[in-house]
Specification:
Blueprint: H1 5-33, H2 41-50, H3 54-57, H4 59-71, H5 73-82, H6 84-106, H7 111-138, E1 142-143, E2 146-147, H8 157-181, H9 184-211, H10 217-224, H11 228-232, H12 234-251, H13 256-277, E3 280-282, E4 286-287, H14 288-291, H15 295-322, E5 327-328, E6 331-332
Antiparallel strand pairs: 1-2, 3-4, 5-6
Helix pairs in contact: 1-4, 1-7, 1-8, 1-13, 4-5, 6-7, 7-8, 8-9, 8-13, 9-12, 12-13
Length: about 325
C-alpha cells in the first residue's frame, strides 16, 4: 500500500493551523475584549490567566507557516504575495501585543498606553488572519505558477466579513476562557461578554456561510450537490447544536464547558473549510499534490516532525496542567 505523504502533510499543516487558531485565538480574544474590563483587578486577572502560556501558543504559528513553506512551496509562493499587507499587519500586531504584554507590568506609569497597544495589536492580528482566510477563499489569480493579481486584490467586502467573523470568534474564545479561569467581578463580566460574542459569532458565521457559495460554482457544488450535501449538511447541524448548548451553558453559569464548546465551534468551522477547499490549497487553481515539495523532502521533514511534534504537544499539555485552576490579580492559586 502506497502512503500518500502529501495528504499526511496537508493534515499536519491543518493541525498546526487549528492548534494556533484555538490556542492563540483565546489570548488574542482577551486582547480584543480588554478595553471592556475594568482597570485594575479585572484587567490584571485577564492578563494573568494567559501569562504562562501566551508565548508558547504562538509555536503553532511557526509550525503552520513554516510547514506550508517547506511542504507546499508553490502554495506559499502564491499565497504570500497575494496577502503581503495582511501578513505584515498581522506580524506587527503580534509584535506590539507581545511588547505591550511585558511592558505593562514593568512600566506602570504608562500602563494605559500599553493596555491600548495590547488591545489594538490583538485586534489587528485577529482581523488580518480572518482577512487572509477570506482572500484565499475568494480566489487568487495565478498565471505561470505565480501570483498574477494586484496589491489590493485581498480587500473586498467578503474578506472584511471573514475578518470580522474571526475577531468575533476570538472574542468568544477569550471570554469563555476567562469564564473558566477567573472569579468574582471579572468572571461575571466574562459571562456577559461571552453571550454577546456568541451572538456576533453566529451572525457573522451565517453571513459568511451564505456568501461563500456565491463566490463560485465550485463552492455551490461542494455544499449543495448530491451526494456531498449529505456530509456537508452535518456541519451546520452540529454547529447549531453546539451553539445552543453553549448558550445554555452560559445561562446556567457553567465554567469549563463553555470554552470546550467554543473550541467545538472552531473545529466545525475547520471542517467547513475542508468541505469548501479540499483538495485545493489555492481554491480553483492549485491542488495539494501540485503544490507539494519533492517526495524525498517530505520524507526528510516528516522524520523531524515525528520527533518534535510529540515534544511540542507534551510541553504544551504539561504547561496547561501546571497552571490549571483559577487566577487572581496576583497570579494562579
Amino acid at each position: 500500500m502506497t502512503i500518500d505523504l502529501t495528504t499526511i502533510w496537508a493534515f499536519i499543516i491543518a493541525l498546526g493551523v487549528f492548534a494556533y487558531v484555538v490556542m492563540d485565538g483565546f489570548d488574542l480574544g482577551i486582547g480584543i475584549l480588554f478595553p471592556g474590563f475594568a482597570v485594575g483587578e479585572e484587567r490584571d486577572q485577564a492578563m494573568n490567566s494567559i501569562a504562562p502560556v501566551w508565548d508558547g501558543n504562538e509555536t503553532w504559528l511557526v509550525l503552520g507557516g513554516g510547514g506550508l513553506f517547506a511542504a507546499f512551496p508553490l502554495a506559499y509562493a502564491i499565497i504570500l504575495p497575494a496577502t503581503y499587507p495582511l501578513v505584515v499587519a498581522m506580524l506587527l500586531g503580534l509584535v506590539f501585543r507581545g511588547v505591550a504584554f511585558e511592558f505593562r507590568w514593568r512600566d506602570p506609569g504608562h500602563r494605559a498606553f500599553w493596555d491600548m497597544a495590547f488591545s489594538l495589536g490583538s485586534l489587528v492580528a485577529g482581523l488580518a488572519q480572518g482577512m487572509v482566510l477570506g482572500a484565499i477563499l475568494q480566489g487568487i489569480k495565478v498565471a505561470n505558477r505565480a501570483y498574477a493579481g494586484s496589491w489590493w486584490d485581498w480587500l473586498t467586502p467578503y474578506t472584511l466579513l471573514t475578518g470580522l467573523g474571526v475577531v468575533a470568534g476570538y472574542a468568544l474564545l477569550g471570554s469563555t476562557w476567562l469564564v473558566w479561569k477567573t472569579e468574582g467581578s471579572a468572571q461575571g463580566h466574562a459571562y456577559r461578554l461571552a453571550r454577546r460574542a456568541l451572538v456576533a459569532t453566529l451572525v457573522l458565521l451565517v453571513a459568511v456561510s451564505l456568501y461563500t457559495p456565491m463566490l463560485g460554482e465550485r463552492y455551490w457544488q461542494r455544499w449543495f450537490a448530491m451526494p456531498g450535501v449529505l456530509f456537508a449538511a452535518q456541519v451546520p447541524l452540529l454547529t447549531a447544536i453546539i451553539a445552543a448548548l453553549l448558550w445554555r451553558g452560559l445561562a446556567k453559569r457553567w465554567e469549563a464547558a463553555p470554552f470546550l464548546l467554543a473550541l467545538g465551534l472552531f473545529l466545525l468551522g475547520m471542517a467547513g473549510l475542508g468541505v469548501s477547499m479540499w483538495p485545493d490549497v489555492v481554491p480553483g487553481q492549485v491542488t495539494i499534490w501540485q503544490a507539494a515539495a519533492p517526495h524525498r523532502s517530505q520524507v526528510f521533514m516528516l522524520v523531524g516532525v515525528a520527533l518534535t511534534l510529540p515534544l511540542i504537544i507534551g510541553y504544551t499539555g504539561w504547561s496547561y496542567w501546571v497552571f490549571r485552576g483559577k487566577v487572581g490579580s496576583e497570579g494562579y492559586h
